[in-house]
Write a structure and sequence with these properties.
By secondary structure, the chain is of the alpha+beta class. The chain folds into 2 domains: 219 residues, 3-Layer(bba) Sandwich (FAD/NAD(P)-binding domain), CATH 3.50.50; 135 residues, 2-Layer Sandwich (D-Amino Acid Oxidase, Chain A, domain 2). Helix content is 25%, strand content 27%. It has 7 helices and 20 strands. Strands 1, 2, 10, 11, 12, 13, 19 and 20 form an 8-stranded mixed sheet that branches. α1 crosses α7 and α3 crosses α7. The protein is globular, with a radius of gyration of 21 Å. Flavin-adenine dinucleotide (FAD) binds next to α1, β2, α2, β14 and β18.
């Protein structure tokens, strides 16, 4: 194990994994003046591959994703504070344009947009003006109060900040070296009171939590360069096209539950290209092709809580397709539970699953 220096280190919390979940825990602990150290292997993570879109609307049913609208504003405030601290803009509020395939979809949109909670995000107006970049026009609707967090920049800059604060270890966490007792936790030269695992889909390798019913869902994405798309809106057909910077767009994604490995595939690339070509009349160059794994759960709710046997071993996972919106909120729930004895919402508590304790 790499060490910060050769002397021993006492801290309150060890955080394993600094994707959106680990970063949110770190920042929440910091706000509560609780000390911590982060460990991450700095391999490509889901949070950096993500488009970072925040949008509480589920298009299939025109419903609100569980709890998303209630927690969104707090999450955006959380990112805004980090942006201010690190002197960078990471929140890009912009409309999402949802293209319709049929006139029936226009009716569904019109009805849904009148409903109470949905109307906070769905404009009732249906647009029919032709767009030069569309193959055919069946009209479109617009979402408001939505946008994207530049998660790639967020993770990169936050990690740099952790490094300058000397509270970041770039190393693979070795579970066999963790020594637990009632009073504290020892990992190499680090002694802590708690450990919080935030490993995304890699939790499957964690002997303390590999019994949780996490369903890994692979997604592939492209970065495409084109001058034919607007830079001020996120476009949604079967996939999203989301501006990264002038002339560069994030295109994705597919949902694959039966995959062999984490690598991008030719099949995934062909799928994304065909979905772009079907709907958009644009010329573009592919600049990048990546893939990663969404940590999803059968009931589509996060996994938050404490190991049934080891009371100082905790987890945040299962952020699924909505890590941006959920991460700050679940981090607060866990920190409040550990330090303020507030109970975790039963819907997200890992104790909703029957566990077979293996360690
Ligand atoms: C293609 C794609 C598109 C997405 N789009 C969106 C979107 O638009 N909006 C949205 O809200 N969500 C989106 N998501 C989902 C979102 O990215 C995830 O919910 C979120 O990133 C999960 O964060 P996490 O911190 O749990 O996991 P991760 O980001 O994967 O982070 C886990 C970290 O733990 C580290 N780690 C694990 N095990 C160890 C170990 N033993 N030692 C050291 N380090 C370890 C990993 O290397 C990694 O850095 C998307 C996901 C994908 C794949």
């Amino acid at each position: 194990m790499e060490s910060l220096n050769n002397t021993s280190l006492n801290t309150d919390v060890i955080i394993v994994g600094t994707g959106l979940a680990g970063l949110s825990i770190a920042e929440t602990l910091l706000q509560n003046k609780i000390s911590f150290i982060c460990i991450d292997n700095q391999k490509l993570n889901a949070s950096s591959v993500s488009s970072g879109i925040y949008n509480p609307i589920i298009f299939k049913r025109y419903s609100i994703a569980w709890n998303s609208d209630k927690i969104l504003l707090d999450s955006l405030l959380f990112y805004q504070k980090i942006g201010e601290k690190l002197n960078m803009n990471i929140n890009f509020s912009m409309p999402i344009i949802k293209f319709f395939n049929t006139s029936q979809e226009q009716n569904q949109w019109a009805i849904a947009s009148e409903k109470n909670r949905l109307s906070n995000f769905m404009q009732s107006k249906i647009y029919n003006e032709a767009k030069s970049y569309l193959v055919d026009n069946n009209g479109y609707g617009k979402l408001k109060n939505v946008g994207k967090i530049d998660t790639n920049k967020l993770i990169r800059e936050y990690t740099k900040w952790l490094e300058t604060e000397n509270i970041f270890l770039k190393t693979e966490f070795d579970y066999s070296k963790l020594v637990l007792n009632n009073k504290n936790i020892k990992y190499g030269n680090i002694t802590a009171k708690h450990i919080i695992f935030c490993e995304g889909h890699l939790v499957k390798k964690n002997p303390f939590f590999n019994w949780l019913p996490l369903i890994p869902c692979k997604g592939e994405i492209l970065h495409i360069e084109t001058n034919d798309l607007p830079n001020d809106s996120i476009l949604k057909s079967s996939i999203y096209l989301s501006p990264i910077k002038n002339g560069l767009f994030w295109a994705g994604s597919n949902f694959n539950w039966k995959f062999k490995n984490i690598s991008p595939t030719l099949l995934g690339k062909k799928y994304l290209e065909s979905e772009i070509n079907k709907k958009f009349n644009i010329s573009y160059k592919i600049k990048k092709h990546s893939a990663h794994i969404r940590p999803t759960v059968i009931d589509r709710k996060p996994l938050v809580g404490t190991h049934p046997k080891y009371k100082n071993v905790h987890i945040i996972n299962g952020l699924g397709t909505r890590g941006v919106t959920l991460a700050p909120w679940v981090a607060k729930e866990l920190v409040n539970y550990i330090y303020n004895k507030k109970s975790i919402l039963p819907e997200i508590n890992i104790n909703r699953f029957n566990f077979e304790v293996k360690t």
